[in-house]
User: Fold these one by one.
Assistant:
Number 1:
Amino acid sequence: MKLFEKIKLDKDVSSQHLYIQLYKALKGFIVEGKLKKGDRLPPIRKLSEMLEVNNVTVVSSYRMLEEEKLVYKKIGSGTYVAFDLHNNEGFDHGPKTSLIEQGHIQLEKNTINFASATPSTDLFPVDDFKEVLNEVLDRDKGSAFGYQESQGYYPLRLALKEYIDNYNIITDINNIQIISGAQQGIDIIAKGLLNYGDYVMIEGPSYRGAMAVFESRGAKIIDIPLEKDGLNLQDLEKKIIAYQPKFLYMMPNFQNPTGISYSLEKKKKILEIAEKYHLLIVEDDYLSDLNFYNNENITLKSLDHKDLVIYIKSFSKILMPGLRLGFLVVPRLVYGEVLLAKHTTDISTSGLLQRALELYLKKGTWQQHIRYMGTQYMERFEAMVRSIKEYMPQEVEYTLPKGGVNFWFKLPKGLSSKELYEMTVKQKIVFAPGHLFFLNNKETSYFRLSTAAVNVDEIKYGIKELSDMINVFMRKENHHSTQTNEYTPIL
Ligand SMILES: Cc1ncc(COP(=O)(O)O)c(C=O)c1O
C-alpha cells in the first residue's frame, strides 16, 4: 500500500474530477513500471478509505483503466495489472480490433500473426551486429556517443550512395539525409512541406502511418484508386488539377497493403504527369529489395531525371526495425525545408547506430544478410502462394503479388473483413482488416495477410484454418453490410 499512499488528489471543486485524477495517478504507476503485470490493485474499499474518497471514485477509475486494457478484473479476486512495461508483447487479453485500429496488435501466445508486416525477430542478425557495435566502440570511443551531424554520419552517407548507385539512383552525397526510420522520413517531409489545409494525394488504399502523419499536420488527404498496375492515371490528373496537392505519397513496389507493383509504363507516365504539373512525389521504398522473380521492381527515383521524387528507404523490413534507420534522397527543390525539419525534430539519428550500420555495410555481412532474408522471405512467399491456391475459397478474390510480404483479398458479397477478424481472433489467427488502409476507415470486404511474421508451418496451417473459417463465415446468416463498393476494385 506504500505506493498508493503517494497519491495526492486535489479535492478543490474546481479541479479535475477525482476519478480522473486517480485514474491518471494509477496509470502513471503502470506506465512507469512501478506497478507490474500481475500486481493486484488495492481493494476498492481500502483505497477509498485511504484516499478519503467515495467508493464510486475508485470504481470509476478502475473502469477507465480496464477500458484501456491496462488492468483486468478476476471475479471474486480483485483487479490486476495487465500491462508490463518491459515486456509489452502482451496484455493479458487477446487482440482486439480497437488496438489493431491504432496500428498495434497485442498477441496472445500461439497466435498465428498474418497481421504484422514486420519480420520476426528470429531473422535478425544479432551476433553480427553485436560484433560491429563492439568494433565501433573500440574504434571511436566517446565520439560514438557525441552529437552526430544532423544530415548523417558522412561515411554512412557515402556507403549508402554507393549502395543506391547499384540500383541506378545516382545522387550527390549531399542529397542524402539519414533518418530514424521511414516513418520519421514521412513525418519530416510533412513537417517541412505542408501547411495547415494543404492537399496531399495518396493511393487508395495506403499505409495508415502515412495518413496519420498528414492528418497530424492538418493536411487534406485525397486518395486515388489503385488498379492492378498502379494508380488510375485519369483520376490522378483530374485531381491534380482540381486540388493542386503539395505532393503525392506512393509505394510503387509491393505496395502496402495491396502488394501491387506498378508497371514500368505506369511508373514512367506518373513521372511525366509529375513533370507536367510540377508535382512532387514521395516514394516510400520500404520493400523493393524483396523481389524474387524479375527486375520489375525498379524505383521511381531511378527514373526521375527531373529531380521531383523524394525517395525514402527503410531498413526495417530487410534488416531490423528496432535500429530505426533509413535514409532520404532529397531533391534540390525541397532540400532546405526537409533538412531543417529533421534538425528541429531530433537533431540527429543515433550516431552509434549509424556508425555500426556503416561498418556492417562495409564488411559485406550486409550482402550475406540480404541474401539470407531473401531466401527466408521467398520460402514464406512460396508457401503462402501454394496454400492460397490450395485452400482459399473460390469466392474470395485476389491477385497474387510478385514479391514482398503483403497479400490482398476481397470477401464476396460485401462481407465485412472486420467481422471476420472478430471471429478468427478467437481462434488465434489475426490479419489486418482492410478498413485500416482506407481514408474513410469504413468497414470493407478487403483484408491483408502478411508473411513477414509467420514461418512456413504457420503459413500452411494458418491459411488452411483461415480458409475453413472463411467458409463458415460466408455461410453464416445475419451479416451486416460493409457498403464498400464505392471503391474501384483494385485486385
Ligand atoms: C509503407 C511503410 N512505410 C513506412 C513504414 C515505417 O517504417 P520504419 O520502421 O522504417 O519507420 C512502414 C512500416 O510498416 C511501412 O509499411
Number 2:
Amino acid sequence: MNDIKIAFIGGGNMSSCIYDSIIKNYDAKNVTVSGPHLEKLEKFKAHGSLITTDNVKTVEDAQVIFLGVKPQILTSVLEEIKNSKISLDGKLFISMAAGYKLSSIYAKLETHNLIRIMPNTPAKLGLGVIAVSYDSAVTDSEKDLCKKMLSHMGECIEGDEQSLNVIGAICGCGPAFVYRFMESLISEALRNGIAPNDARKMVEQTVFGSASMVIKNQDTSIAALREAVTSKGGTTFAGLCKMTEGNFEQIMQNTIQASLDRTYEFEKMF
Ligand SMILES: NC(=O)c1ccc[n+]([C@@H]2O[C@H](COP(=O)([O-])OP(=O)(O)OC[C@H]3O[C@@H](n4cnc5c(N)ncnc54)[C@H](OP(=O)(O)O)[C@@H]3O)[C@@H](O)[C@H]2O)c1
C-alpha cells in the first residue's frame, strides 16, 4: 500500500500542506506534482518527487489524484482529463476545491470515486480540521487511505457535503475570525498604553492558554470554564455584560451565516 502512486494537479499552498503530511507515511518518489510552472515545483523535486507540466500523464500514472487547483481552474482541468480519454477505472480523486460539489466533479469525470476535503490553514502545523465527504463509490479502505494521508494535518471530520460546508464556514473561515478577535484585543492593549511587543505576546498567550484549558478539561463545559473566571459584579462580568448588550451571539450567527451563504453562491457557479 505504501507503493501507491499519488498525484497532485497543482502544487500550490494547500497541495504543499497535504504533500508534507503524505511524505511522512509514503515514499516521495511515488508522488508526482504537475503545474504550469516547473520552477515553482522545485521543492517537491528536492524531496525526490517527479514534477511535470503534463496533467493528463500525471493522472494516468497515479492511483490517487489530489485536485489542488483553484475552483475557477478546476472545470478546465477536469475537462482536460476527460477529453484525454484515459481510463479512470480504479482511480480515486480527492478534491480540495472550495464550493465545488461532488456532483459537479462527477458531471465532468463521470466517476463516483470522489472525495471532497476542506482543510483549514492550521493544518500546516498539524493542528488543522479537515472536513471529508465521500461520493458513493468510495470504499472503506479508500476512506482509510485518505484519512491516513491527511493524518499529519490534524483532525478529520467526516460527513455529508452540507456538513462540509458548515465545517468550512466554522473551521475554514474560523482562523480569520479568531485573528480578528485577537487583533481587537491587541488594539485595546495598545490603546491602554501596553508596548506593541508585549501586547502581541500577552494576547497570543491568552488565546493559546484558553484553548489549552478547553482542550485539557474535556469533562468541563466551556460555559463552566467561563463562569470560573466570572464573579458576579466583577471585572470579567462587566466585560461580558457589554458583549451581551452588543449582541455577540447574534453577530457570530450572522458571521457564520454570511460565510455559508457565500459558499452556496460559489456552489451555484460550478
Ligand atoms: N489555501 C487554503 O487555505 C485552502 C483551504 C481549503 C481549500 N483550499 C483549496 O485548495 C485549492 C488550491 O488553493 P491554494 O490556496 O493552494 O491555491 P494556490 O496556492 O494558488 O495553488 C494553486 C496551484 O494550481 C496551479 N495551477 C494553476 N493552473 C493549473 C493547471 N491548469 N494545471 C495544474 N495546475 C495548475 C498553480 O500553479 P502556478 O502557481 O504555477 O500558476 C498553483 O500551484 C483551491 O481549490 C482552494 O479552494 C485552499
Number 3:
Amino acid sequence: MPKLISLSADLKEAFQHLILQRTGLVIRPSDRDSFAKKISMRMDAVNFISPQDYYLLLESRTQESKEEWQNLVALLTNNESYFFRDKEQIHLLQNHILPKIIQKKQIEKTIRICSAGCSTGEEPYSLAIMLQELIPNYKQWQLSVFGIDINQIAINSARKAIYSPWSFRGVSEVIKGQYFQQVNQQYQLEPRIKNMVQFHLVNLVQDEFPFNDIDLFICRNVFIYFNAPAITKVVNKIYHALNPDGYLLTGHAELSGQNLSQFHRLSFSQSLIYQRRKEGEKQQEIRQPLTVKELTIPQFKPIKPAKTLPKPITVKTDPVPVKKQPIISPSPIKKEPVKPTVNKLLETAKNFIEQERYQAALEQFQQILDINSNHTDAAYWIAQIYANQGRYQDAILYCERLLKIDSLAIAPHYLLARIAEETGKLEEAKYLLKKIIYLDPNSVAAYLDLTHIYTQEGDERRAIKMYQESLNILQMLPPETPIVERGNLTASQLLLQLS
Ligand SMILES: C[S@@+](CC[C@H](N)C(=O)[O-])C[C@H]1O[C@@H](n2cnc3c(N)ncnc32)[C@H](O)[C@@H]1O
C-alpha cells in the first residue's frame, strides 16, 4: 500500500489547476480525497517523496513527463463504455443522420466519422457496424471511423477489439453473433469491422487532430468531466475539423450554456444534434417532425383508479366477449363489449401502421369512431398520426376529444406537450409536462422532456434537477417496468442509457 502523502491546500489546488489546463478534466469536490490518493499512488510508483517534485515533473515538457501523464490520466479518467450506448441516439443515427450522410456521399463514396473520447472502442466500432449495415455495397466505399482518446491503455485495448459480456449490455444476440466470435468468455470483433477503425492517442484539449474533413463527430460522456472553457476549446476544434454541413453529437445536455452559434441546432425527439453552419449562413433551430414510430403508445392510465375511471361506455352492439386489444394495454374503458368489426378494424389499422400506410390506417380508425365515438385507442391513434404528419391542429382536436372522455388521461396530455414542444411553444409544453407530473409523479418521460426543454433554454440548474429526478424514479421503479413513451424500454434499460 502506498503511504498517503498529505497535500497542502495550495498544492492540491496547483495539481488540480495543472490537470484542468492540460486535460480539461475537473476534479470535483466529492472526488478530492480519492484524487489525493491517486497522486500518492503515482508518486509511490515513480519513487517520489516530495509532492512538489512530482508537480514539477508533471509541469515539465520532457519525455519522462509525457510518460507520467499517461499513467496519471489512466487513474483520472472514467472509461466506462458499451456497444450501441444510448438507444435513442443510436436510433437517431441509424434512421436519420447516417442515411443523410450516405445519401449526400453517393457519388464521392467516402465517409469519415470520429468518436472523440472513444475509450476502449465500443462507440467507434458500433458506428462502423451501423455503416456496414446501412451500405449494402460498402466494399465500394471508403469508410473511415477514427477513435481518439487521451488514455493509452484504453486505446491499446480498443485496438485489440476483444470484449467481455459487460460491453454488450442491451445488444441483441443477432448483432453479437453476426460481428463477434466468442473466444472463451470473451468476444473478438470480426476483422471486416475492426479494419474500418483507426485509433489515435489524442488529448482533445491540447493536441491537433490527426485528420480533417469529418462528416460526423460523436463526443459523448466526455464533456461532463470538463470545465466550460475546455469544452469551448474542443468544440471549436471539432468545428474546424468538420466538413461543411457535418454533424456533432454529444451526450444529452453536455453543451448546455455553450455558445454554439457556429452550428445549426437540429432538434429530434431523441436528441439534439448540431450541424456545422456555413460561413455567412444564419443560424437555424430546426425541429424535426414527430414520427409515429418514435411516438409509442402511452397507456390511458387512470392515476387514481377509484376516482378517475372513465364512465363505462355503452356500445349498441351484441355483447361479445372482449378480446385483449393488441395495441394499447386495456384500461377499463376498453373492456366494454364491442362489435367484432371494431376488433377487425383495429387489427387492420395496426397492420397498415406496420406497413407505414398511415392514410389507410386513418380510415380504419375513423370507421371505428363511427361505430363507437368514444373509442379512446382509435382517437389517440388518429391524433398521433396527425401529429406525425404535421397536422398539429387536427391532432390537438383529437387530444381534446380524448380529454373530454378522461380529463386525467396522461397520453393526450403527453402528445399535446410534444406538439407544443415541436411548435416552439415551450411555456405551454412545460405547463403540460408539469401537469403530467402532478397527475403521475413517476412520469419519467415528462421529467426527461423537461430536461430537454430546460437544456434548450440554457437553464442548466433546472435541467440537471429534472434529469436527476428521472434517474431517481428509474432507480425506484421495479427494473422490468416498461416506460411506454420511450419505446417500452424497461426502467433498468433506460437507466443504463441515461447514466
Ligand atoms: C466515459 S468515456 C466515454 C466513452 C464513449 N464516448 C461512450 O460514451 O461510451 C470518457 C472517455 O473520455 C476520455 N477523455 C477524457 N479526457 C479526454 C481528453 N482531454 N482528450 C481525449 N479523451 C479524453 C477518457 O479517457 C474516456 O475514455
